[in-house]
Design goal:
single chain, alpha/beta, Rossmann fold, 6-stranded mixed β-sheet, 5-stranded antiparallel β-sheet, 9 helices, globular, disordered C terminus
Length: 269
């Protein structure tokens, strides 16, 4: 069986904190693979290692047979990445953004003009091609962000929380578009903490929590294994139902300081 992405005991630690702990997964070529987990589960860190943005602490990862540490440039040529943070320049137009990223991949001339037009038409933005991206809605920006990730014809596309903060119509469009990418023969990896999205899109699903993959397999097999009717039931069976209260250590960039009025009192500074 051929795999587009493989990891072997992949681990990432930051100053003693283990964000990803010995993860081994295999993503079959030409499928949609889901990574489901709560915020802080390690999904994004795992994929940043796969797409060469982070160096693993230990373990190995391969994309279409290329080692992410030893052959990073080969990996970058064949993957497209849609991160939660949009990689677009707001002062440039939609057309100028795609032209810029196309040139970074060595595409130019008539080929670049054709790709830009085809992608903008595909994501329903050709009519807005000469508008600055800073004037776009969140949904429009995400559609352009997906087009940007496809400009160089990648074989593997990674989408990190692609529908986060989008309106229902944009969510529907993105999910349908992701299904269409598989139809073109691309391998798609989607991270999400949305149970319905994970169930709708994923052929195989890995459930992550606290840096580890708790279980992985075809969605229907996971539901059968845990006698569950939904992916949400599987997820709660594996991760538990207890509330998790974690303080971020910051509030809108301002810190806490104690009032002089007495112990236990605090105010924003």
């Amino acid at each position: 069986m051929s795999y587009a992405v493989e990891t072997e005991n992949l681990t990432k630690a930051f100053n003693g904190f283990v964000a990803v702990n010995g993860v081994s997964i295999r993503v079959r070529r030409g499928t949609i693979f889901g990574l489901l987990g709560p915020n802080g589960a390690g999904k994004s860190t795992l994929l940043r290692m796969v797409c060469t943005l982070l160096r693993p602490t230990s373990g190995r990862a391969y994309v279409e047979g290329f080692d992410v540490e030893r052959e990073p440039n080969s990996v970058r040529r064949i993957i497209g990445v849609v991160q939660e943070k949009l990689l677009l320049y707001p002062v440039l137009t939609a057309k100028e953004n795609l032209e810029l990223f196309g040139r970074l991949y060595g595409i130019d001339g008539e080929e670049l003009r054709r790709k830009v037009r085809d992608l903008l038409e595909e994501v329903k933005l050709w009519g807005f091609r000469d508008r600055p991206v800073g004037t776009f809605s969140t949904g429009m920006r995400q559609r352009l962000n997906i087009a940007r990730a496809l400009i160089h014809d990648p074989r593997v596309i990674i989408l990190d929380e692609p529908t986060n903060t989008l309106d229902p119509q944009s969510v529907r469009w993105v999910r349908d578009y992701v299904k269409g990418l598989k139809g073109r023969g691309l391998t798609v990896i989607v991270t999400t903490h949305d149970m319905h999205e994970a169930e709708e899109l994923s052929e195989e699903l890995a459930i992550m929590d606290r840096g580890q993959v708790l279980d992985v397999g075809p969605v229907n097999e996971l539901k059968s294994k845990y006698h569950a009717s939904t992916v949400e039931d599987v997820f709660l069976e594996l991760t538990g139902r207890e509330l998790r209260d974690e303080l971020s250590g910051r509030i809108s960039g301002r810190g806490w300081r104690r009032r002089r009025s007495g112990p236990g009192s605090a105010t924003l500074s």
